[in-house]
Write a structure and sequence with these properties.
The complex is a heterodimer of chains A (about 220) and B (about 350). Chain A is of the alpha/beta class. Helix content of chain A is about 35%, strand content about 20%. Chain A has a single domain, classed as Thiamin diphosphate (ThDP)-binding fold, Pyr/PP domains (Rossmann fold, 3-Layer(aba) Sandwich). Chain B is an alpha/beta fold and about 350 residues long. In chain B, the strands form 3 sheets. A 7-stranded mixed sheet of chain B has the order 3-2-4-5-7-6-13, with helices on both faces. A 5-stranded mixed sheet of chain B has the order 10-12-11-14-15, sandwiched between helices. In chain B, strands 1-8 form a two-stranded antiparallel ribbon. The longest helix of chain B has 22 residues, at about 210-230. Classes of the chains: A alpha/beta (about 220), B alpha/beta (about 350). The interface of A and B includes residues 32, 33, 52 and 70 of A.
């Protein structure tokens, strides 16, 4: 199913999200129409991973790029794959406005509470007290809840949800709903809690425990609005 | 009796007409003086148009639209032009035929709102790259029309992003123009860069330094080839010229009038007006020194030497000539000022 070997770190959660996305497209018979735009961050490593049209953009800029693509070709199925920093920090302005305008694209946000590619710095999603290279004394801020922020902004018909890479059934279910939402002409965003053993500095079961622990702060499920 | 097809048009209407005639399908933009009328005019035309949250989104949406195979553009100025360098840098890397209409305003910062020639270096070399983009500088409303048409054609034919670099004076000028003479101009059609059933895996970030270097070397080679074909200058009254005025855009028009009047005073002066700033018409400039005994180049511009920098960069090093400058950043330049400056030198 995959086109090339994954370039992600061992234990990374991204390949799970990508494989489930591709599986869902296969199930819906939409691989040909699918276009995967990648933000810069670990998402960029997916550039030749799947047998679907894929291109890289800039950090924080995948949402407006895919909006432009979708507006030019409305029968395409457009994905913006982005990290928590790209979505909720540098690209937040575009994300909020895309949600507000109900742009029919699907945004998949990987939330691993850090900037993975650059070495684990504090992200908008970093937990209070979490130690990172840019919060050596522990993060003084509370984390950012993206889907919850957008619930007062989106239009009826949009889809907002949060799941995790070790909840594959729910992940696939939400991806399917997100695609159907896009095809019905509405905005969709799925936040996926994901592993980052490299920057969490965890191995084995500790990585899984850490991810499961995140679910206490970031509640899984569809966001009602 | 000859038919009169002249119409009274603003510069922004000329741009809109050119985009319409170039079969442009969409615009993404953010309001900023002096280019607002392009955004509102395109909106009023009923074609696809979106007022975005900022110029960053506008530029990337244009990139997305051209990736999908649509002719698309944005228009901006000054601080908005700075924000557009983010997306233009991507367009340069991926060789996306994005088109940008710039109405220069005064700078730095928010500066003034109508006129300057201070966005030359930004348009030509903005971004963290090598300036592999096409930049056109029109000096009249007719040329504004032609170069806007050409920007879309060249961008789609050669796959480089293109900038029509004008200013607010030009966009807000109202003149009688006859665009019917250009009715036979042909369009290079858009083509789909990312299409169904033909999978592309398209990076713009590389693991190895060598990969990037290879990619850039290929692009540079293409850019140099394109330069042979499209680099263009207006060369006026340079026979036996001892003085050569170099100016671009509307200052180029002013300088041309000054040349006529100076020649009446028997001062041997000519004009070199680059029409394309990128690629720069280097050969055309160097050739002027083969035939003539030019003693002095006088660069006239509404900036502290942005055009002069391009000229000095491109002039063949073996050409022995001295430079004088008339520089008025952010200010319009009158014919009399050019005459006085050149007259004083002679």
């Amino acid at each position: 199913m995959q086109e090339n070997l994954a370039k992600f770190c061992p234990g990374c959660g991204y390949p799970i999200t990508l494989m489930m996305m591709n599986k869902t497209l296969e199930k819906l018979g939409l691989q040909k129409q699918a276009v995967l735009g990648l933000d810069i961050g670990c998402a960029l490593l997916a550039w030749n991973y799947l047998p679907i049209n894929t291109f890289q953009t800039h950090h924080g800029r995948v949402v407006p790029t895919m909006m432009g693509f979708k507006r030019a070709r409305n029968n395409s199925v457009c994905f913006a794959l982005v990290g928590d920093g790209g979505a909720y920090a540098i690209g937040l302005q575009s994300l909020i406005h895309a949600a507000k305008r109900d742009e029919p694209i699907t945004v998949i946000v990987t939330n691993n509470t850090v900037y993975g590619m650059t070495g684990g710095q504090t992200a908008p999603t970093t937990l209070h007290g979490q130690i990172t290279p840019t919060s050596p004394e522990g993060n003084i801020e509370e984390p950012f809840f993206g889907p919850e922020l957008l619930k007062d902004i989106v239009k009826p018909g949009a889809f907002l949800a949060r799941t995790a890479v070790n909840e594959v059934k729910q992940l696939q279910d939400y991806l399917e709903k997100a695609i159907q939402t896009q095809q019905a002409g509405h905005f969709s965003l799925v936040e996926v809690l994901s592993f980052c053993p490299t920057n969490w500095k965890t191995v084995g079961v500790d990585t899984i425990n850490k991810l499961n622990g995140l679910k206490e702060t970031f509640k899984l499920g569809e966001i009602e609005f | 009796m000859q038919e009169n097809n002249k119409k009274l048009m603003h510069g922004y209407d000329v741009v809109l007409q050119a985009c319409h005639d170039a079969d442009v399908q969409s615009m993404f933009g953010y309001p900023i003086t002096p280019t607002c009328e392009i955004l509102s005019g395109w909106m009023a035309s009923g074609k696809k148009c979106l007022q975005t949250e900022d110029e960053i989104a506008a530029g990337f949406a244009v990139c997305g639209a051209v990736l999908a195979g649509e002719k698309s553009f944005t228009a901006s100025s000054g601080p908005g032009h700075i924000l557009l360098q983010d997306s233009f840098s991507m367009a340069e890397a991926m060789r996306l035929p994005a088109v940008l209409i710039i109405g220069q305003r005064g700078g730095p910062s928010s500066g003034t709102v109508i006129y300057s020639q201070q966005e030359v270096i930004l348009a030509c070399f903005g971004g963290n790259g090598e300036g592999l983009r096409l930049v056109y500088s029109p000096s009249s409303l007719d040329e504004l029309y032609l170069l806007t048409r050409q920007a879309f054609n060249d961008a789609w034919q050669y796959r480089f992003p293109a900038v029509v670099l004008t200013d607010g004076y030009m966009l807000k000028t109202r003149q009688a123009v006859d665009l019917s003479v250009y009715k036979d101009l042909e369009n290079i059609p858009a083509h789909t860069l990312v299409q169904e059933g033909k999978i592309v895996h398209w990076p713009n970030i590389y693991t190895l330094e060598e990969e990037l270097n290879d990619e850039l070397s290929r692009a540079k080679e293409d850019f140099d080839k394109v330069g042979e074909e499209i680099a263009k200058a207006e060369i006026y009254n340079t026979d036996e010229a001892e003085y050569l005025i170099i100016a671009h855009g509307i200052v180029g028009s002013v300088a041309k009038m000054a040349v006529d009047q100076l020649r009446e005073q028997n001062i041997k002066v000519g004009l070199f007006r680059p029409v394309t700033l990128r690629p720069f018409p280097k050969k055309q400039l160097d050739n002027l020194f083969v035939k003539n005994n030019v003693k002095k180049i006088v660069v006239v511009e509404s900036s502290f030497g942005q055009l002069a920098r391009l000229v000095r960069d491109h002039l063949a090093p073996e050409i022995d000539v001295s430079f004088e400058y008339l520089q008025k950043p952010g200010l319009g330049i009158e014919v009399e000022e050019v005459i006085e400056a050149v007259g004083y030198m002679t």
